């Protein structure tokens, strides 16, 4: 029984670390955040923090996984995933550090040996599939053109969403959510 309690405490502590890291990275960004700051926020040493993760890259990947869980629960809609994408893009204006972390890790993850590589492969598989399903749902409801290829349009929406975040990181006047909405309106008109 002691192992189960110890395991549960370890899982809870890891979740506490991820919640703190998500908060710190959203405010301070990838370059502005020290892992010591995250450790201090949860009341552990840096080695104590790293006890829960294989490496810094594994921790950063876990932060993005946690971000996706929180964003999906908070901003996605079971009714319409395209509207959920727009809400997430609106939210991303408020968490520039997480956008910076996403961009940085996505670039690093092109290397198959990087710890974030499987995360991004899985993430894109799920996101593309769910967006294609949302497009099919809109087609069935008569609110999207029937001649659209759902898989192709999902890929274009994701490519634009990722690319517009890079543009926004360089120029904060870019309207990420508005650009996605306008693109969808043009594609589905």
From TrEMBL:
Q: Which InterPro entries match?
A: BetI_C, Homeodomain-like_sf, HTH_TetR, Tet_transcr_reg_TetR-rel_C_sf
Please state every residue range assigned to the domain named HTH tetR-type.
11-71
Look up the signal peptide feature and give its range: none
Record carries keyword Repressor = yes
The molecular function terms in GO held by this entry are: DNA binding
Going by the entry's taxonomy, the superkingdom of the source organism is recorded as Bacteria
Per its record, how is this protein called by name? TetR/AcrR family transcriptional regulator
Which organism is this entry from?
Labedella phragmitis
